[in-house]
TrEMBL record:
It comes from Hydrogenophaga electricum. It holds the Pfam family Hydrolase. Its EC number is 3.8.1.2. The keyword Hydrolase applies. This is (S)-2-haloacid dehalogenase.
Amino acid sequence: MMTGMNMPAAQPRLIVFDVFGTVVDWHGSIVKEVSERFPSVDANGLALAWRAGYQPAMQGVRSGARGWVRLDVLHREILDGLLPRFGLGGLSEAERADLNRVWHRLDPWPDSVAGLTRLRSRFTIAPLSNGNLALLTAMAKRAGLPWDCVLSTEVFQAYKPDPRTYLGAVEAFGLQPGEVLMAAAHQDDLDAARSHGLMTAYVERPWEFGRQRPKDVTPSPDNPWHARDIGHLADQLLGT
């Protein structure tokens, strides 16, 4: 059932998903692991600071200031800059490398696997994430995410919102933009996808940044679909 928005003329043939925050709980997962490994560290502060470095790090690639760099590398550069601030400057290379792979071990939101499985019964589903291929593959195997394939912006050597990412996904499946639905918990991602002709669905994740920083998840009339979670999106698209 729609949320006060007009039903699109046709359903999608392909649904691509943002992953960090939309499908997996990056904040809760990092806080949990850091708290277990380093009980004296401000795990919430580290998680938020690490994520805060995400867009600035990618902007260096987007602007052309540096060549293509996988997200694993960017995450590690951000982490190395943060560790002294959080009292972890003495970590060994092996410890740093393993901590950086926490992004490969993120837990799905409770509704994600079941909701994606339902959607996969009718639609082709794939991530369209800034995460690199190795990261997304390891995450999917660990979390049981039932993707039909793993699609990363690494394939296009560009980070969202570069049009090569959205249109590259469309072209990879031999479709037209209007046959592809982008689902995300971030309006800027959806705005960019829609500007290139994709359909869009907003997925509410009010606790993406933790319970102390709730997000505004007010529906936007620009999105044909608005869902409480991925299960609710499946209800709407499957008509159940």
